[in-house]
Design brief:
heterodimer, A: Cytidine Deaminase, domain 2, two-stranded parallel sheet, 3 helices, B: alpha+beta, Ubiquitin-like (UB roll)
Chain lengths: 135, 92
């Protein structure tokens, strides 16, 4: 189950819309062990592609180091699909390297409706989970 | 000569759960060979035929070694090498 504040949900959706048709990506940091997303951290997609994303490696280092200093962890890792469904692809699953994170997929394939779904990805297995948006 | 190597969660199966290990070597490549002696299997997660694996990021202190000299990057006592899996994926 992913419990996410409305404001953070909306920031992710806005980021995905803004970067469309390129994939958008980023992190929601929260206190280590809390499973609570609190801080929105959009990341640069160094691939700048409509079909691939990769966190810029220098930004990744800086953000991961900063989270460590603040006793935080990446609670949510999000990215968008711009022409396909909001479901983890084969590459999403292969490269999922944070077993404790909720992987949020957003799809901007429709101009009006944005799909927003969350998954756990561990050892190559995908499990969808419900999303509760807290007002 | 000890170089601190910080290991990400998914590679801690090779270090008995340790988030930090030590190693020696004059270059990053030599350091990785040294680590393999005590943490078998770790090298294959970092290196392939083409050098450093594509979706693994390795940093010497604050810099991505891809901007330095890759596996030839010189390392020395007191340096910190950090490994972070790339955060990546795509539509297919």
């Amino acid at each position: 189950m992913l419990t996410i504040p409305r404001a953070l949900h909306d920031q992710i959706v806005a980021h995905a819309r803004r970067d469309h048709p390129d994939e958008a990506c980023g992190v929601l940091a929260g206190p280590a062990g809390s499973d609570r997303p609190e801080r929105f951290i959009p990341m640069t997609n160094s691939a700048r592609s409509p079909t691939f994303y990769e966190f810029d490696s220098t930004e990744l280092f800086r953000v991961w180091r900063e989270m460590e200093g603040r006793d935080e962890e990446p609670v949510v890792i999000y990215h968008s699909h711009t022409a396909t469904e909001a479901y983890p692809s084969r590459t999403d699953i292969s490269y999922a390297g944070e077993p404790n994170a909720h992987y949020v997929l957003v799809s901007t394939r429709d101009d009006e409706a944005t799909e927003f779904r969350s998954f756990r990805i561990t050892d190559g297995h995908v499990t969808e989970e419900p999303v509760t948006v807290v007002e | 000569m000890a170089i601190e190597v910080r290991i990400p969660t998914i590679l801690r199966t090779y270090t008995d759960g340790a988030k930090q290990v030590e190693g020696t070597g004059a270059t990053l490549g030599e350091l990785i060979v040294d680590l393999e002696q005590r943490h078998g299997g770790l090298r294959a997660r970092l290196v392939d035929d083409g050098g450093l694996r594509r979706f693994v990021n390795v940093y010497l202190n604050d810099e991505d070694v891809r901007f330095l000299a890759g596996l030839q990057t010189p390392v020395k006592d007191g340096d910190t090498v950090t490994v972070l899996p790339a955060v990546a994926g795509g539509a297919s």
